[in-house]
Each structure stands twice: as structure tokens, then as C-alpha cells.
Amino acid sequence: MFWTRFFSGIGLVLIALFTIIFGGNILFATLLLISLIGLSELYKVFGIANKSLGIVGYLAGLTYYVFLYTMNQEKFLMLFIAYLIVLMVFYVFSYPKYNALHVIASFFGLFYVGIMLSFVYQARMLENGIYLVWLIFICSWGCDTFAYCVGMLFGKHKLAPKLSPKKSIEGAIGGILGAALLGGLYGFIIKDYLQGADNIVLSFAVICGIGGAISQVGDLAASAIKRNYDIKDYGNLIPGHGGILDRFDSVIFTAPIIYYLAVYLIK
Amino acid sequence: MFWTRFFSGIGLVLIALFTIIFGGNILFATLLLISLIGLSELYKVFGIANKSLGIVGYLAGLTYYVFLYTMNQEKFLMLFIAYLIVLMVFYVFSYPKYNALHVIASFFGLFYVGIMLSFVYQARMLENGIYLVWLIFICSWGCDTFAYCVGMLFGKHKLAPKLSPKKSIEGAIGGILGAALLGGLYGFIIKDYLQGADNIVLSFAVICGIGGAISQVGDLAASAIKRNYDIKDYGNLIPGHGGILDRFDSVIFTAPIIYYLAVYLIK
């Protein structure tokens, strides 16, 4: 089990490195695929993965990516409204096949999986995006590692006792500080490559600290949904790591946060 | 009961006439208020009206209207993401107070009530909006009336037997044709006032026909949600008419449709 997890972890990192460094269409296509798989994992939980409400969700996700790619961002709101109306058409004309919760779960999935993950691509496509995009992974995975180590050493007070009994407040703080430290260090290393930006070390530390806090919310949110539905893993796509939503639970939350912080804080 | 319904109906029409003709801030403030009340009615169904997840929803609704008013529409996506993340923070740190469905229901409410209704204001603020905005009400209420009359006279085949046993396919078609007829008639009356637009009669008929079809989906959707939760009315704000969501169930769906059809079809 350890070696399975280890080697598929290395595989994941290589895929991430390759697709993110190349960026452009390769990254775009990879994220679209990951989003659709993640969406199907979420929809499986709500029992609509292979039903009309799920299919409407996949099509909405696909349309969102097409709009993103073709720079039709002003049409996003129109897409969300069309999506909601089409869901309602299926809901009322197949009544009582679905209940209200199936409808709103399908709608929610587009945002939780498709849109949030697409910010990895959007961050990569920013000016200086080839440097900035890594902050997403530094704060997600860095925070995770630091939180684990600090929690093991100093953890005393429970963070969310009923949801994740092993997590401690000390670990959470350690994770945030560790992510900030890694972010600052990364900023120090690459600061000469970033054109026209000041205070990179401090900015990156602040961004990664905030990202680290949010990444823990993402981690807990995925756990909470799984607990509510009494499942262990969302899927088994990645040997030893579970499904897309198990492995990307923090990245889902940090990607948009890092994108917006980078846009607003780094000038 | 009839007179209560009759007089409060007249009251509603007068408020609609007054606020829509004035437009601007008066209409904006009225719709914001209606949206927040409608949101609280929906949240009552899902059991979060007075809880943190509900309050986050009202704040997201308020922020949406502020962004709309201040023309910060490019920030909508940022708002939706921030809303989702804040909901998740409350979800995980108060676990197991809420379940996943409370979270997604809060999220959904912003779109279903707040955003959809705001298109009455957006339609009114279009060029020629003072004429176009009435199409929303012509197709919603016109379709309703025609569908009822045609259904009573010719109704044979059930439209959605398990959801609304009294509705017929004949009535639904009659509603669509009736709405188209009223739309064309309205276009014929006002066509000389609309600047720089061609084929008004035909355009208005097509727009109102499509709007009539969608308005019936809105009506059925509100019924379906109420059936799933075994409630008769969403509220009792309007004597004889129920709550905001009972009275505006079709307008919620026709407002964005009429807005987009007007923007794309009327040149």
C-alpha cells in the first residue's frame, strides 16, 4: 500500500509538472478532464452521476470551459441561468423521479468542482503565471505537511473534534505558518524572474498563509461531505489516493484564492 | 377570500406599475427587498432561514445587488466563490450542525431567487427598457390566464400528471400561443415608440411565446419544491396569494429569459 501510494504520488507530481509548465491547451484539456471526473465523483454521492440531472451538469461544465477558453466570460451568468432552467425542466417533467436536492446538488457541482478547479488554468495564464501558479500547490501541500508535523509534535486542542478528531488547532496554525514560510522562501528564490513586481517575498508569504488556511477548509469540507454520506473515498482513480476529489480537495479551494490574491496583491 | 385576493391583487399591480414606471433606485430597492424576503421563504423550506448558512445567503444576495448597482459585474464570479467558501467555513466548524444539503441549498438560493429576480431591474434599465420590461409580466400572467381558459375548454391530455394533475398539454399550448398573441398585440400598440428596432410585432410575439413556455416551467418548479417538502404555500405575506415565491414563481424564470431574448433579438 505504501509503495502504491508512493509511486502514484510521483506519477501525479510528474503529470502536474508537465502540464503546468507547458500550460496552454495541454493544461486546459487536463483540467477539463479532471473537472468532469471530479464532477462525476460528486454526482455519484448524490445519486445523479448517470442520470439526466448529472448529464446536464457535465454539459454545463463543458460549456463553462468553452466560454473560459473563448474569453466569453461575460456570458457566465447566462450559462448559470440556462443551467438552472434546464435542470428545472428535467425536474418537473420527470417528477417525482428527482427531488429538489438532486437539482440543487447538480447546480452546486459546477461551482464546487468545475469552476474552482479551472482557476489552476486561469492562474497559469496570468502574466507571470508560470511562477504564480505554483503557489496553489505550495500552500495546499505545504500546509498539509506542516500541519501534520506540528500537530504530531505539539497538538493538544482539537480543531474540529466531531469531524476530524485527529486535527489540532496547533497543527492548523503550524500549517498556515509553514505555508507562509515556504511561500516566502519560494518568493526569495524566484524574485528576480518576476517582472515589475515589488515585495515578492512578503506578498508570497501572505498569499500562501491565507491559502494555507483556506486549504484546510477545503480538506475539512471534503471530509464533511463524505461523512454526511457515509463514504470513505470519492473514488479509486488514483491508486492509494482515492479519487480526484480526495486528492484535490484543498486545491479546489486554494486555486481561486491564490488567483484572486495574486491579481489584487501582486503589482 | 375572493375579495381579499382581489384587492391584494390590485395592490400588487399598483406597486408593480409604480415601481416599474419609475425604475431606477425605487425599482432597485423594491427588488432587493422582494429578493431577500423570497430568499428567507426558500430558506425556511430548507430549515436555514434564521441560521448562519441563511445569513451568509442574505449577505451574498445583498453583495450581488451592490455589485449589480455599481456595475461591478466582472466580480460576480468572485462573489460566488467567496460565498461558497464562507458557507464551507460555517459547515465544517459547526459540524455536525448542518449537512451538505443545507450548504448547497443556501448557495442555490442566491441564483434561484436573488439573481433571477434582479433581471426585472436589468430589463428595465436596458435602452427602451421602459417598454421591454412589461414583456416579463405579459408573458407570465398572460400565459397563466390563457393556459387556464384553454385548459378548461379543451384540456384532455395531462401535462405533468403526478405533479399538477389539473394541468393539460392543450392548456400549456394555449398559454404559449396566448402569450405570443398578447406580446404581438403589445408590440403593435407600442411599435412607434421603440427607437431603432425592426419587426417589433413578430419579435415580441416570439419572445412572449418562449417566455410563456418558460413561465410554466417556473410555475411547475415552485410546485415541485413545495410538494417535495409537503408545504402548501411558501409564505403568507400577500393576503390570498401566499408568499413572494408563490406569486413570483413564473416571473423568477421569465425575467432573465425576456432580458436575454430582448438583448439578442431586438436590434
Automatic annotation (TrEMBL), chains A, B:
Pathway: Lipid metabolism; Phospholipid metabolism; CDP-diacylglycerol biosynthesis; CDP-diacylglycerol from sn-glycerol 3-phosphate: step 3/3. Keywords: Cell membrane, Lipid biosynthesis, Lipid metabolism, Membrane, Nucleotidyltransferase, Phospholipid biosynthesis, Phospholipid metabolism, Transferase, Transmembrane, Transmembrane helix. GO terms for biological process: CDP-diacylglycerol biosynthetic process. Its EC number is 2.7.7.41. GO terms for cellular component: plasma membrane. GO terms for molecular function: phosphatidate cytidylyltransferase activity. Its main location: membrane. It holds the Pfam family CTP_transf_1. It is a multi-pass membrane protein. PROSITE patterns: CDS. It is found in: Cell membrane. The keyword Transmembrane applies. InterPro entries: PC_trans. The keyword Cell membrane applies. The chain crosses the membrane at residues 6-39, 51-70, 76-93, 100-123, 129-150, 171-189, 201-222. It catalyses: a 1,2-diacyl-sn-glycero-3-phosphate + CTP + H(+) = a CDP-1,2-diacyl-sn-glycerol + diphosphate. Belongs to the CDS family. This is Phosphatidate cytidylyltransferase. It comes from Anaerosacchariphilus polymeriproducens.
